[in-house]
Amino acid sequence: MSAPARPAAAFSAPALLPLAENLTDRYLADLAELVAIDSGSHSPAGVNRVADRLEARLRGIGLAVERIRPDPVHGRPVGDVLVARRSGRLTAADGGRRILLAGHMDTVFEDGTAALRPFRIDGTTAHGPGVSDDKGGLLAGLTAVEILLRAGWEDYAEIVLLATPDEEIGSPASRPVTERIAATMDIALALECARENGDLVIGRKGVADFELTVTGRAAHSGIEPERGANAALAAAYLVVDLQDLNGRWDGVTVNVGVVRAGTRANIVCPEAELWVEVRASTTEGLNLAAQAVHTLAAHSVVSGTRTTVTELSRCPPMEDTPAARTMYSVARTAAAELGIDLGAAATGGVGDANLIAGAGVPTLDGLGPVGGADHSPEEWLDISGVPARIAVLAATVARLGRRLSGTGGGRSF
């Protein structure tokens, strides 16, 4: 016969805060160690050194760890995907949930950056490459699981911590692994750090990238220009029409970011190329804008030219849904118990949370500590707020680990 469940108050943010405070020194030591490792997306050896340290810590607190080596991307290897698991005492029939905590090990920085800008603490702020994006968040997730297990938390079906090696380049190698794991989860909390003002992230835009190739007909521009079909002119009309899509649908932006055309001034341009990005806060908006790109490309206003459209990639949005709002309400209540007013924000940036949400999993992001200036030499993390943020994360996980009414687990609230 299993032991009775501990009272919910044992896993409130105030109850968990002392445990988080006791582990702050360990958190900072781990953070200094991880930031000292160059782990750019194209540095698989460095990413795997980060994975080695995370694996040792996760095994040490009782999680089973699997390392998955994804296929190379365009011939370039990436680091391993790390997946850590622990089962609770509940099943789905008991109302237990499978909870995914997700972060990434790679940074945007080149090898040598860690030596040039080593980890340092100035007052209550830590600096260094990846300190906020996303090593501080990954360690917050690990520490939150650790304090929950120390507190005796068992009322859940499964807790999974996922750490990916290539998020900063769009997760091309790890995406199949992330989507496969997400498909088995009930809810997800992503570990990107909170916004600079402390807000969580309730929505992320999806993105679709297109290459438009305009084909015309070359001719001598001085002797017989009438025999030509100017692809550059057709592309110019397309640029205007594509940019005019902005404002047509709420939450949708279209940007023509690259335009290339022609080789010489005395040749009627035979070919042009456009690179176009569409971002949208909903799947419907992304689909509508993508269809509009195809429609505009199919109707050239310059006789003798035609345009082909190639969709290069698509990442689904992390939509602001009722389920995500319920998760946010749980986190906000936990934060309020510590006197923290927790806001929610939407962003145009994409991350692994998009892929998880795209698999149909209710997802909330920004559960790491407060940080900012990501991807820059000024990147920072507020270490004074780390214990409270970890306690809020842990309390949110504990509350979401089990449905409190009805029967069955799953993604319903």
From TrEMBL:
Keyword Metal-binding appears in the UniProt entry: yes
Organism encoding this protein: Kitasatospora paracochleata
Cofactor(s) named in the record: Zn(2+)
Broad class of enzyme this protein falls into: hydrolase
Keywords assigned by UniProt, alphabetized: Carboxypeptidase, Hydrolase, Metal-binding, Protease, Zinc
Peptidase M20 dimerisation domain sequence ranges: 202-291
Superkingdom as given in the UniProt entry: Bacteria
InterPro entries: ArgE/DapE_CS (IPR001261), Bact_exopeptidase_dim_dom (IPR036264), Pept_M20_glutamate_carboxypep (IPR017150), Peptidase_M20 (IPR002933), Peptidase_M20_dimer (IPR011650), Peptidase_M20A (IPR050072)
Protein EC: 3.4.17.11
Molecular function in Gene Ontology: carboxypeptidase activity
Pfam families: M20_dimer, Peptidase_M20
UniProt name for this protein: Glutamate carboxypeptidase
